[in-house]
Amino acid sequence: MLITKQALAASVALLAGSSAFADQWDNTLEQIQSQYIVPKYENFSASADELAKATAALCLAPSDTTLETAKQAFSQNIQDWQQVQWLNFGPVTYFMRYYAYEYWPDKKGVTQRQLRTLSADPSTMATPKFWTSASIAVRGMTAIESLLYHSDFDVVAKNSDCEVLEAISRHHATTTHDVLTQWQQSQATDWIFPEEGTTATPEHLVVEQLMQQWIEHMSVVKDAKLETPIGYKDQPTLKLAEFYRSEQTLPAILTNLKAYRNLYHVGQPSLFDTAMAKQPELAQALESALAENVKAALQLPNDYFTADYSQAERIEMAKPLVLSISNSQTKLSNLVTKLGFQIGFNSRDGD
Amino acid sequence: MLLSRRAFLASSLAAMSIPTWASALPIEAQGELFFSAFSKGKTDHYVGAFGSNGRLLWSMPLPDRAHAPVVHPTHSVVGAVARRPGFYIDFFNPLTGEAIKRIEPLAEHHFYGHAVFSQDGERLITQENHYPTGAGKIVIRSWPQGEVLNEYSSGGIGPHESVLMDQDVIVIANGGLRTHPDNDREIMNLETMRPNVTFLSLKDGRVINQAEPEPLLHKLSIRHLDVNRQGVVALGFQYQGELWENVPLVALVSANSDTLDYLDMPEQIRARFQQYCGSVCFDASGETLAISTPRGGFVAYWDVPSKTFLGVDNCRDVCGVIATNRKHEFVLTSGTGKQLISSPRTRQISQINQLADLHWDNHLRRINLNA
């Protein structure tokens, strides 16, 4: 078979191009893991440890002071969680860990009901296989928040409530440490299920899944964290807002939105760098949209979810943020599609 | 001279210059054609046909996204059923590209994205929602005239897909979700929904049998189904509760049982389904069951006689599944434009083709002259 010089040169250029492209995602993904996921999980694990220690100290010497220390540790742990909440991928997807971290929204008060049962006999939590079969409603931060803040529980005055709190906090810290260790000891590409015969590199497939997770999480922030509790389209359900009792709803949103910007810029080349090289207009448009998200969230008053605003007032105040998140989601979808990723067709919109 | 119904049908189709599949299928198709809706970008929607080599042989633009094709059993007619809330079924002759007919739902009704022809091809059977009341309907029209012959209750709310058990009985997946086209993704009866599978007589609309999930699982929406030659019906659920709830997602049922026989699978696989089953399909022998989950990114398989889990094929955004005429073999289509052929019992899967910039929509159908 004859191959012209031009055809050969073109083939070499094409191969070189695709190789460079693959390497680009190799580096970006490696750095997303080493400079974002692992450090954020280190923070999350460290604050979970602090929370476990604080609840142990509280139960050892119950007082308003030790309670306050435990609450502060809890708030820090929530904020660390919000940095990685967008990522329902990898170790956190096993043993229902992701859903156990937050049993939210708990529309039927399952957490409180199950906590009351545990508090009636906390010794059940010490049995060897308790945590392997325990309900996800009592395995994570939603349960801890209830014990620290819900009026049904009094961890200062009632030993059994505090015992439950201490056990859950300890379990939460262990789980988080396990997730961290698995991230430290594996590569992101270990956590995907590649198709037979696919031509896409594992790195490409992982980055694609991360982008899908990011896009989906924007919907969570806009819909579940903001629109639903304030009654943007329906009746308000403020008490079902995320971490409402500990008044962490708005800080959590703000942390999520800042995390997006962080994610966009982590590593070298970062997602932003690659996007700027290939799709500069879209890359810049997303950059502006992500900045606008943070700006719009900062416009909301600190007591936005807790003060006595009317539904109409809350909706009016939320509009710029709702529009901004929608816009950033569109920009992100457009960009990742142009970068050659599939954001899902049947998986995003079936029937 | 009195004209028999069959003769009349033949003459009607002849008058419309519709050939039979057997007389007109191109050699390139090698006796079989696959049909699916697909989209290019966000606004360009089509229905198309491809042969066993995966090459697109024909396509026609559609006004909106379609959900499942409906294929005439004898003549070269394929319909694209609009996605819920659907207001059209566009019929084409895929061998010429000619648009044959558009059928619209009854007044104040919409389609659910699926339809089926009777075994003799003389009747078109659709599932429809009378949206002012939420009543599920099975509507039987003459084909090709489109005249409404019968209108039966589906036996529930939200009749999504139906399959023929035999020439007189249809099995209906009543999903249980009441919706209205004004806000079609809002579920109006989430807390009270009661999905069921209904076996309905096509002769008189009589309910022959029904089965439904137990009350604790009332959010287990029954959406897609298939029936094998042994009369076993497989059901794929779309759970409307929380993602973390441990619920069954696949079941078998028969016409003489009112209980659902849930199929086991490893928990790590069940969790990956994300509570969502796409297509449900038996193989040619009826012994292998395939269930796709685009959200999970795989197709799962079971051995039907023993009800045991066989394994999965990982495939991003996969949804379309159809049996070939070989035992234990399926063709799969995905939102990434791929067409694959899988033999799950020998763990062999290979890509037939991939059409760039094209998203195969939910369901795949096939006409086969080789059987």
From TrEMBL, chain A:
Annotated GO CC locations: cell envelope
Any idea where the Imelysin-like domain is?
A: 37-328
**Source organism's superkingdom?**
Bacteria
Compartments where found: Cell envelope
Give the matching Pfam families.
Answer: Peptidase_M75
Supply the alphabetized keyword list: Lipoprotein, Signal
Q: Which residues fall in a coiled-coil region?
A: none
Q: Which InterPro entries match?
A: Imelysin-like, Imelysin-like_IPPA, Imelysin_sf
Point out the signal peptide segment.
1-22
- UniProt-recorded name of the protein: Predicted periplasmic lipoprotein
Natural source organism: Marinomonas fungiae
Automatic annotation (TrEMBL), chain B:
The question of whether Signal is a record keyword is answered with yes
Q: Where is the signal peptide?
A: 1-24
- Is the keyword Mitochondrion assigned to this protein? no
Q: Which UniProt keywords apply?
A: Signal
Q: Tell me where on the tree of life, at the top rank, the source sits.
A: Bacteria
A matching Pfam family: DUF1513
Name by which UniProt lists this protein: DUF1513 domain-containing protein
Which organism was this protein described from? Marinomonas fungiae
